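Friendly challenge for the regulars: who can give me the structure tokens for this chain first? No prize, just bragging rights.
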Amino acid sequence: MTLVMIQGKIIPPQDAQVSAWDRGYYFGDGIYEVIQSYNGKLWGFDQHFRRFVRSLKEIAINNVDLEQIRGWIYQAFDAAKIPNAMIYFQITRGCAMRTHVPPADMTEPQFFLYVKPAPDNRHYVEEGIATILYEDIRWKRCDIKSLNLLPNVMASQEAARRGASEALFTTGDFINEGASSGFFGILDGKLVTRQLDNLILPSVTRQAILAIAERLDIEIIERPISIKEAFEAEELFTASSGYEIRPIIKLEDKIIGTGKPGKKTLRIIEHFIQDTRGGISFDEIVKNTRFQLLPAK
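First reply, four minutes later:
Bragging rights claimed.
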């Protein structure tokens, strides 16, 4: 079952339509979020909404009734009656004739949402995933959760063509993040992941993982991981709201570690599953962490 909402109205999925003049349609002029729910509760909603508000501010979509949007999200989630769900929602700048500078007669921002059952990610945990490297050809504001995802689509297509589950974006000799996920490595027993900056998304799941690693007394270092280090890593994994945590067992043609999900990765996954399925709120998980959700800027 999939529930769809447009501008606060729940409609049958087969009847979902947007205007041909929507700036999201021809410019990708908008931002989006994806949230998981566990056992009937939206997980990390306040953190996702903070990032959503930040993205709106960064691209200067200012005329949004945030409390109305918040209410619509909860209304749709309650109506869907899917305890373990994935909720996607987006806002575009509005509808108008095509021109780069938004015209004065543009409509109000356009809101779209759907709710569907969350994917079953257990096979990723048990088997791990293969990944490829892909040059990062995205723009230089990856900290904004923009609708402009063509490079991500291209990278994901190439990964699928080569029998892999994810593409890892590279700049020079370093790996930034995945096409649809954050990127982490276990190097010399330490958890390493890129620091928050303009080249990666400030992932909500990232903050939870770092808090869990702190709880497990795993030393954490925030810095880019080089391609050479990744090939030689003890363990690698990706993380996102939709796919949760996926161990990497193969990078290009190189087997990572033992070729099976690594021990530290599995410990982090175990605690992540216990927390999310056990009703522990996101706030409770991260309350003592030193790691921030959003970049300082």
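The radius of gyration is 19 Å. The mean pLDDT is 96. Your move, everyone else.
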